[in-house]
Amino acid sequence: MEVVSREEVLEAVKSKGPILPREIVKILGKSDTFMVGAVLSELINNNQVKVTNTKIGASPTYYILGQEMELQNLAKHLNEKDKRAYDLLYQKKILRDSKLEPLVRVSLRAIKDFSKPLEINVNGQKEIFWKWYMLKNDEAIKLIKEMFKPKEPEKIQKEEPVLKISKPEPIKEDKNKEEPRQEFTFKSAENEPKEMQESLNKKENLETTEFLSKIKEYFHKNNIKIIEEFLIKKNKEYDFLIKIFSPLGELNYYCKAKDKKKNNETDVGAAYMQADQYRLPTIYLTTGEFTKKSLVELEKFKQVTIKILE
User: Fold this and answer.
1) Could you tell me what percent of the chain has a pLDDT over 70?
2) How many CB atoms neighbour CB 231 within 10 A?
3) Given this structure, which CATH class describes domain 6-65?
4) Strand locations in 204-300 (E)
5) Higher per-residue pLDDT: 197 or 69
6) How far is CA 216 from the centre of its chain?
7) Where are the domains of the chain?
8) 29 burial class (0-12, 13-18, 19+ CB within 10 angstroms)?
9) For residue 50, what are the CA distances in angstroms to 132, 190, 191?
10) Is the pTM value of this prediction over 0.90?
11) Beta bridge partners of 121
12) What is the pLDDT of residues 46-100, one digit of tens each?
């Protein structure tokens, strides 16, 4: 067995990062990719090396602190929807989650190398904003505050304008009148739970739960065959690849099932994005309801079928 030292692997990452494991193997002239992977894992655990969420093919890349700017070279490997979100965030630097299209909101949660969430308390109301990963927090705060500044009314000039520069007169303030103040508190939301913690469990290995039994009963009644099933969160969330037998023949679908009281367009958007990786239409099963606002947004998801489990 070939010996691969931490120093060799770390030096390769320092010189070429972000770098693929197979490129490290080539640089070192080694053939044991397993050992290189083991050393990389050790370096990550020691906080000497970082790993990207963005993948080239099926593999992430590895880099060190100081190489963050080079991550932008990975943008060309994003899918079309994620690349549009990337470009928008790159241009704007700050995006307000509640004002975005559902698919953009899903993509911003997917491109974790480039989008960093900030949970902001605005006048007692929590909101999520997304900042460009290279933007400093103090700069992000300034840009967010700018969003809430009232726009100054345009001055109407009755006379024809004269092109001259004049010193503006100071605006007299009514000291007895207090303007309402926008209050902000900020905290990083980077540790929010991952949308998709995929456990590729074979269907015979999944523990039977009340919710899973309810899903399978629905499948049985509707002549649906399970091809694969994935546990996402025990008794709360499951993913399925299914086959529906219809008069038109066999139809393949991706199915997301959630035991959730209140659903929104972001839930469905995440399922839609996951189904898109399989190039399949989507079925979203839930035990709960949708907000009125989300029902309007859901009209944009033409390839998603939503079913409520009784």
Assistant:
1) 81
2) 21
3) mainly alpha
4) 224-233, 237-246, 249-258, 262-263, 282-286, 289-290
5) 69
6) 29
7) 6-65, 78-149+182-192, 203-308
8) exposed
9) 18, 16, 16
10) no
11) 126, 185
12) 999 999 999 998 889 999 999 999 999 999 999 998 999 999 999 999 999 989 9
33-45 and 21-28 helices, crossing angle to 10°: 110
AA letter at 117? P
Residue 157, pLDDT score: 55
Backbone phi, psi, residue 307, to 5°? -130, 135
Alpha-carbon gap, residue 82 to 87, rounded angstroms: 9
Is residue 114 within 8 A of residue 75, CB to CB? The reply is yes
| Residues 43-47: contacts with CB under 8 Å, at least 24 apart | 43/6, 43/9, 43/10, 43/13
CA-nearest of 271, 284, 309 to 102 is 271
CB distance 206 to 230 below 8 Å: no
Show the tokens assigned to 219: 């499948």
Residues 6+ apart with CB under 8 A from 284: 255, 256, 258, 263, 267, 268, 271, 304, 305, 306, 307
Secondary element (H or E) of residue 188: strand 184-188
Please answer whether residues 291 and 309 qualify as being in contact, where contact means their C-beta atoms are separated by less than 8 angstroms.
Answer: no
Q: Which residues of 268-306 are buried (b: 16+ CB within 10 A; e: fewer)?
A: bbbbbbbbbeeebbbbbbbbeebeeebeebbeebeebeb
Residue 62 CA to residue 51 CA, distance in Å, equals 5
Task: Report the chain's C-alpha Rg in angstroms.
Answer: 26
| 262 CB-contact burial (10 Å; exposed 0-12 / middle 13-18 / buried 19+) | exposed
What does the DSSP 8-state code read for residue 203?
G
